Amino acid sequence: MNSNKNTLKVFAYSYLIFLYAPVLLLPIFAFNDSTIISFPLNSFTFEWFAGLTQETYLQESLKNSLFVAISTSILSTCLGILASRASARYEFFGKKSILSFLILPLFLPEIIIGVALLVVLMQLGLPLSLWTVILGHTLVCTPFSIAILNSAFANMDMSLEEASLDLGETRFGTFKRVILPMVSPGLISSLLICFTISLDEFIIAFFLTGTETTLPVYIWGQLRFPAKLPGVMALGFLMLLLSLVLLSLFEYFRRRMNRSAEDKTNVQFDNLFKT
Amino acid sequence: MTEKLKIDKITNIVELDGVEKHFGEVAALDGVSAQIREGEFFSLLGPSGCGKTTLLRLIAGFEQPTKGNITIDGSQMHGVEANERPTNMVFQSYAIFPHLNVEENVGYGLKRLNLGKDETARRVNEMLKLVDLDNYNKRPAHALSGGQRQRVALARSLIMKPKVLLLDEPLSSLDKNLREQMQVELRHLQRTVGITFILVTHDQEEALTMSDRIAVMFEGQIVQIGSPQELYSRPKSKRVASFIGVMNFIEGQLLKGGDQNTTVDAGILGNVNVSPDQIPIPLNSGPVIIGIRPEMLTLLFEDRDRTEFEISGEILESTYFGDMTYYTVQVTGLKSPLTISMRNTAGRRVLDDGESARVGWGAESLVILKKSEV
């Protein structure tokens, strides 16, 4: 019994090491004063981080990536709002199958999506640009957005909307004053997760990008030059930090969303008059 | 004073004319017609699934009738959206906006009227005072108790000065003490503001204590409209009689007599003369059901106690309620036992099971109902 437990423990720890050790190598080599990525380590340096500021291509691609990620997160979240709202409030023919098809890109290999979109764009004669990347990313991110927002919309008490209408507010005003504030934790979660996914997405960006590259595509290009490797490590480390911050924020808002849903159902009925 | 004025000129604030509502194949409302008078406290009473909430939602404008007309304050409501109607609703869940505090909730509907900050604040405070929530302005929605939520919901609706206030089972989620207190308060509030209230409830006691008039609904139809007294003492059917309070039913025969003195053969109880108002719907001679309320029957404790009629029986069971005792009494010659309620006055003992008892009653306490009614 006991040895069994220990074996499991060893297994769990080795798994974690296997999972995170490569990631931990990033900061180690990012601060190592040597162009060769291997042990033993040399002295500590900020040189690679300083070097990043000199790379104009890097800054270009960072700007591109931010543009793509922000556009993607906004577009996907807007589409997610429409889909979740429709699924939460209305009954229509084929609702379930439509929703399944909307979620499907989640399970499709990105390379298939990339190739398929490339073929379509070529047939349409559309030039590849950051916009085509945004298109591809929106396709991949919308299912995430729908998955997050669906619960936010479904948890909303229908009578809140009716109460707002009843008090003279228009449908649009109700959406603005009641529905949006109530689903806002979900909206922020959706924006964050879509931004994060788009920021490090490589395959679709690689297929659909034109002359302007996104950050992951830029990094891939840099790997051909061994001298650039420590710089890539430094950049990778910064992206890792950014992802961690974004994911923590996402988790925070997701929990807040769940909490507000609980608040609504667990109405406290303590008695005012007994006090 | 105001009561007298109302009697002089009764205006109907809500008129329902042949209203039907179908959900697919199911008819939730099957031809409902009624007039609701200005300034009255009107209740829609019925078991769950009878269509009372659907009717309220049709009046509010959340649903459109499949057939028929709804008129509010003289205007046809066909195609008029909820936000354009002179009605406001207190929801069963209260639907307090959880992201807003008390004063933002109460002032929600004023925002569109562009009254300015000061006027809005003045009206909100006035309303909060009316519902006994002064100084709760900044309290967040999640920090309110059930009773407070209800007050906020009331204030939020009343601040819109509706012609009709609709209340959807507003007391059902409160505990018993609070519910009884709120019944009194709601009634008082309605008298104070003078707005027509339409209350939906499945609780007959609630309807009886609060309403000016009650409409009893079964299966999508209104079966009887009347004051609480009318419904209780002169129900038009066995079903209404047993839905509102408890009633004993005895089989009998209506023997045709003159208009002023119709005679009923009540079997073991003998032949009884009844007045026309004891027959709520006109009946032909033949088999009838005779109804009598438990408190209209008396157990005669002392030898010298006398009533108009008297029968004898045996106590099967007694249930003690503190102020009242309910007896189940088997009267010789009757198929089913009678329920009798007695007030526990000073010095009066509770009879034991198996004890023989004399049951007294009066002719005017009977109500004669149609036999075929299930």
Structure in words:
- The complex is a heterodimer of chains A (275) and B (374).
- By secondary structure, chain A is mainly alpha-helical.
- Chain A has a single domain (61-261), classed as MetI-like (MetI-like fold), CATH 1.10.3720.
- Chain A has eleven helices and no strands.
- The radius of gyration of chain A is 24 Å and the shape is globular.
- Residues 263-275 of chain A have low confidence and may be disordered.
- Chain B folds into two domains: 2-238, Rossmann fold (3-Layer(aba) Sandwich), CATH 3.40.50; 239-370, OB fold (Dihydrolipoamide Acetyltransferase, E2P) (Beta Barrel), CATH 2.40.50.140.
- Helix content of chain B is 23%, strand content 34%.
- Chain B has nine helices and 20 strands.
- In chain B, a hairpin with a 2-residue loop joins strand 9 and strand 10.
- Residues 1-6 of chain B have low confidence and may be disordered.
Strand residue percentage of chain A = under 5%
Q: Tell me the count of domains of chain A.
A: 1
Strand order of the largest sheet of chain B: 6-7-8-3-9-10
Rounded to the nearest angstrom, the radius of gyration of chain B is 25 Å
Name the helix and strand elements of chain A from N-terminus to C-terminus, one letter apiece: HHHHHHHHHHH
Helix content percent band of chain B = 10-25%
| Total helical segments of chain A | 11
Count of beta strands of chain A: 0
> N- to C-terminal separation of chain A?
56 Å
